[in-house]
Automatic annotation (TrEMBL):
SUPFAM superfamilies assigned to the protein according to its UniProt record, in alphabetical order: Leucine zipper domain
PANTHER family recorded: NUCLEAR FACTOR ERYTHROID 2-RELATED FACTOR, NUCLEAR FACTOR ERYTHROID 2-RELATED FACTOR 3
Species this protein is from: Smutsornis africanus (Double-banded courser)
Any GO CC annotation of this UniProt entry: nucleus
Domain BZIP: start-end pairs: 2-49
Gene Ontology molecular function: any one: DNA-binding transcription factor activity, RNA polymerase II-specific
TM ranges: none
Classification of source organism: Eukaryota, Metazoa, Chordata, Craniata, Vertebrata
UniProt cross-references to InterPro entries, sorted A to Z: bZIP, bZIP_sf, NFE2-like
Protein name (Swiss-Prot/TrEMBL): NF2L3 factor
Length: 106
């Protein structure tokens, strides 16, 4: 009887594990689909952002009325909602300073 109960518990454990594996495979497939959808969504957002960036720079003019070169400037949005056009070399130096601050904190 003890051996029979042991076999029964073992079979129940195996069945539970098989059910868990099946559930995890279903969850994995669901997560794969979700990941794929998010990747496509991110790709579309990047494309829209790229289009917006090009559109903004096509309309920008400097003090003399010449088009602003997107290779030399970047669009910066502050946390307050303000939008600035900043020379790239200033952004790079700010990023270096931020990186140095982060490294010092670590």
């Amino acid at each position: 009887v003890a051996a029979q109960n042991c076999r029964k518990r073992k079979l129940n454990a195996i069945l539970n594990l098989e059910e868990d594996v099946c559930n995890l495979q279903t969850q994995k497939e669901s997560l794969k689909k979700e990941h794929s959808q998010h990747s496509r969504s991110i790709s579309r957002m990047k494309q829209k952002l790229n289009n917006l960036y090009r559109d903004i720079f096509s309309r920008l003019r400097d003090d003399q009325g010449r088009p602003v070169n997107p290779c030399q400037y970047v669009i910066h949005c502050s946390s307050e909602g303000s939008v600035f056009i900043i020379p790239k070399h200033l952004v790079k130096s700010e990023q270096k300073q931020d990186n140095e601050k982060e490294q010092k904190q670590q």
